[in-house]
Amino acid sequence: MPKYVYNFSEGDKDQKDLLGGKGANLAEMTKLGLPVPPGFTISTDACRAYLKDGHEPEELRVQVTKALRQIEETLGRTLGDPADPLLMSVRSGAKFSMPGMMETVLNVGLNDQSVGGLAEVSGSERFAWDSYRRLVQMFGKTVLDIDGDLFLNAHDALKDKKGVTDDLDLDAADLKELTEQFKGIVADATGKPFPQAPRDQLDLAIEAVFNSWNTERAAIYRRRERIPHDLGTAVNVQTMVFGNMGETSGTGVCFTRDPSTGHSGVYGDYLMNAQGEDVVAGIRNTSPLSALEEQDKVSYDELRALMRKLETHYRDLCDIEFTIERGKLWMLQTRVGKRTAAAAFRIATQLVDEGLITKDEALMRVTGEQLTQLMFPQFDPDAKPQSLARGMAASPGAAVGAIVFDNAAAEAAAAAGTKCILVRRETNPDDLPGMVAAEGVLTARGGKTSHAAVVARGMGKTCVCGAEALEIDAAAKTMTVGGTVYREGDVIAIDGMTGDVFLGDIAVKDSPVTAYLAEGLEAGYAACQDEDTKELVQSVDRIMSHADSKRRLRVRANADTPEDSTRALAFGAEGIGLCRTEHMFLGARKVYIENLILAEEGSAERQAALDALEPLQRQDFVDMLTIMDGKPMTVRLIDPPLHEFLQDLVSLEVKVAVAKATGSVDPADEKMLSAVRRMHEANPMLGLRGVRLGLYLPGLFGMQMRALVEAAAELKKAGKDPRPEIMVPLVGSIRELQIIREEGEKIIAEVAAEYGVELDIAIGAMIELPRAAVTAEDLAHEADFFSFGTNDLTQTTWGFSRDDVEGVFFPEYIEHGVFGVSPFETIDVHGVGRIVEIGVSHARQTKPAIKLGVCGEHGGDPESVHFFDQVGLDYVSCSPFRVPVARLEAGRATVEAGA
Predict the structure, then answer these.
(1) If pLDDT is split at 50, 70 and 90, which confidence band does 429 have?
(2) 8 A C-beta contact, residue 331 and residue 34
(3) Cα 5 off chain centre by
(4) Across the strands, what pairs with 257?
(5) What's the pTM value of the predicted model, to 2 decimals?
(6) 843, 858, 866: which is closest to 765 by C-alpha?
């Protein structure tokens, strides 16, 4: 019989694949001897079997019965007993944390009979009815799929009727009345009464957790976080302990360090006389954990000791959920806590200094994505914005945008290219699409551990929570502050570092981390506004220095101008991996390319166009090689199809037709139209471009190579150390490369003799076609290096035209799970990646020491960098701004490979 159910005493923290993160950590805390309410975990295997077959495995019910009876025997109570009921919680718990994305049901086992028994044994009729109404509400929403607003509206209506604003002002009779209303909502919505059999409640709740794995919000979250869809979730069934049994009971969430800043200290939120969802959902505004010391010092001291014990055991920031039941502390959950980018870098270096982790481990605790977040702009400190309100700084960053109140408006704004801020009374998991679309999130309720805060931190979104001055009317689409009404479309700004909310647009400035990365440590310090930020910059510097000391991969930049080259060096680039020469022909120089195309082959006009371009190209190369002195600079010969330099065919046809109709046609326009028609292609990305263009227009590649070689010779004669490399684009045949190489070698020899210098200039190929990769063993005979152009290689492997498909059907492909992420963002390891592996293997069969790199934007993508390190490339090249990310990830890849 397959084993599907595990008691908490049977597992440990390393069994997340089987028990999910929550179940594995509950087992670990049990093993450590912490006060954990008894329970059991239903494995992810059971969930996968359920999702596959459409029903629970037959063995599961039997195993649940055995585990439940073991708990009943231990505690001396039975599930739903009318006199002294054992009540259970049913919670999801996937391998990877997905806060708020799946279902939870509390107080399972309560019914019309056992509510009286609970009142009797607890000595509080109010507590019993509060627990029962919570069960009906949660069960109705999560298990029976009833609109949650029906329950909330009934709850609010009763408080209005009683003239109160706080849940605690409702007495036992009120809560009994509310429970009956909730049961009526269930009956009206389902046509059946609320289920009274405790075991039916338990089985239905377990099934609801299984089903919640495939809800839309869970699928969206997994796609965003790149969590596999086939993992399934575990289910944790645990004895209820109650934080709502009066003023000696409470519940809360705490962190062993501040997940927003990384600072050590007392950090968390709690509520007395409440249950867990009150804290997480932001239904009531919480108290800071430090205040618990005054209310219940014994529990506070015990909790602080357990927090330290867990952090030492896990050697990381821990996120902890706890409940105090009549003065007794219970630990309900722990996990390695999500944190902001700033906190990640600070905590990593703090733990090194405290001797809990090594420098290599610290490097693995941060990511390139987090570094990118730290490079985001911040509000200009000299700005004088109009303050609207202040809430809790829940997730850092600076966000400006138009107010929106729901998912549809946020997604519509994003689709239109309009930045927006999602404004809600409080968020819930259904708001995830709007949170993804918005620049930031602002809520009137909730604390730093509310749903909005936790999800925003995980997504890297700016978030301000608990801005109590805001009155939100989502139905009317208004936000009222101090009597002033703001409507959808009004622009506001939120500061996730301070919790401030401002009216209107605010200028932003580069972050101190960007100043450090671009100009050095002192510049970074100078850009800091306080000592906390200096500490962050120092932490980033320490980790970046260690990454640079560990990495095997070299990091170059894609740069086409002197300005790009300077910026690339500032960010730590070790050369240029891609200089796109076609970018040098834009603007005023475009006319020379037009003249080149219009001129007949071998004509004086064509040679004149080439002669005009050569000195311009030479000076471009002199400027860039001077900046990159002593570092390699790979120059790609002109690659794009020539139609990109010509006028639009349709526009030109209209212009000529109109001119003919009015009798004022310009012969130059007619000549241009003839050329455009001749050069027009149905699929230009697979047409006359790259090496094909160099062969079709004799002299074009020769002019470029001579300009580059003469620039290098000029600088070498002046005592410089230029290191140019010539890269031939879109090569598919060895003969194509031979022809260009022969021409290039002849030019190098002529220029070297003319200038009286020795020139060692490598000639290589850009691998953008699958054929080039699978015949790399042949091409390597004629190449000194290869650089994989993964943008075009992705297009030619998939058969995509990137410009045409990304905005058309990619969203549907991601929605349907064809892609987890666009293959133009992260390398498609199983398809394009395999082509790269073949190219690497075949090239090194011919030349074991051949230099291999990548020059698509994948070179700056964190996941892709690890792949390129794994297959043995020598360098990656990316845009200047992404160079620090590539450096960090290259270091992490080396450590990961040696683990």
Answers:
(1) low
(2) yes
(3) 34
(4) 264
(5) 0.80
(6) 843
Write out the H or E segment, with its range, that includes residue 61: helix 58-75
Average pLDDT value over all residues in the chain = 90
The token pair at 651 is 């526009």
Q: Which of 495, 634, 660, 631 is nearest to 566 (CA)?
A: 631
Residue 585, pLDDT score:
72
Which residues on adjacent β-strands are paired with residue 40? Answer: 7, 237
**Distance in angstroms (rounded) separating the CA atoms of residues 263 and 304:** 16
DSSP annotation string for 591-658: HHHHHHHHSPTT-HHHHHHHHHHHHHHHHHHHHHHHHTTTSEEEEEPP-S-GGGGS--HHHHHHHHHH
How many helical (H) and strand (E) elements, i.e. helices and strands, does the chain have?
Answer: 37, 31
Asked if 235 and 243 touch (Cβ cutoff 8 Å), the reply is no
Give the pLDDT of residue 789. Answer: 96
Beta bridge partners of 876: 555, 854
Pairing type for strands 576-580 and 632-636 reads parallel
Distance of alpha carbon 392 from alpha carbon 465, whole angstroms: 5
Active-site pick, 254, 855, 866, 878: 855
- Between the CA of residue 501 and those of 150, 400, 411, 494, what are the distances in Å? 31, 10, 22, 5
Set 451, 546, 643, 858: catalytic member: 451
Burial 521-532, CB ≥16 within 10 A → b, else e = bebbbebbeeee
- Residues 86-111 have pLDDT tens digits of 999 999 988 887 766 667 899 999 99
How far apart are alpha carbons 594 and 587 in whole angstroms? Answer: 12
Better pLDDT: 821 or 611: 611
Residue 291 and residue 300: Cα distance in Å, rounded?
A: 9
State mean pLDDT over 17-40.
Answer: 96
pLDDT band at 848 (very low <50, low <70, confident <90, very high): very high
In one-letter notation, the amino acid at residue 468 is E
Q: Where are the beta strands (DSSP E) in 513-610?
A: 554-558, 576-580
Active site residue 451: yes
pLDDT tens per residue across span 482-533? 999 999 999 999 998 789 999 999 987 778 999 999 999 999 999 888 888 9
Q: Cβ distance 303 to 254 under 8 Å?
A: yes
- Rounded Cα distance between 494 and 479, Å, is 14
Q: What pLDDT band is residue 642 in, cutting at 50, 70 and 90?
A: low
Distance of CA 303 to the CA centre of its chain: 33
Interatomic CA distance for residues 897 and 866, integer angstroms: 9
**SS3 label, residue 873:** coil
Q: Which residues pair with 267 in a beta bridge?
A: 255
Clarify whether 855 is annotated catalytic.
yes
The strand pairing partners of 765, in sequence order, are 728, 786
DSSP for residue 886: H
Split at pLDDT 50, 70, 90, the class of 245 is: confident
Reference 807, options 790, 822, 796, 828; nearest CA is 822
Residue 675, phi then psi, degrees to nearest 5: -70, -40
Tokens of 502: 């401002």
Average pLDDT over residues 254-271: 90
Residue with tokens 């194509």: 736
pLDDT for the residue 409: 95
Q: How far apart are CA 669 and CA 675, in angstroms?
A: 10
Pick from 193-202, 463-472, 556-565, 813-822 the range whose average pLDDT is largest. Answer: 193-202
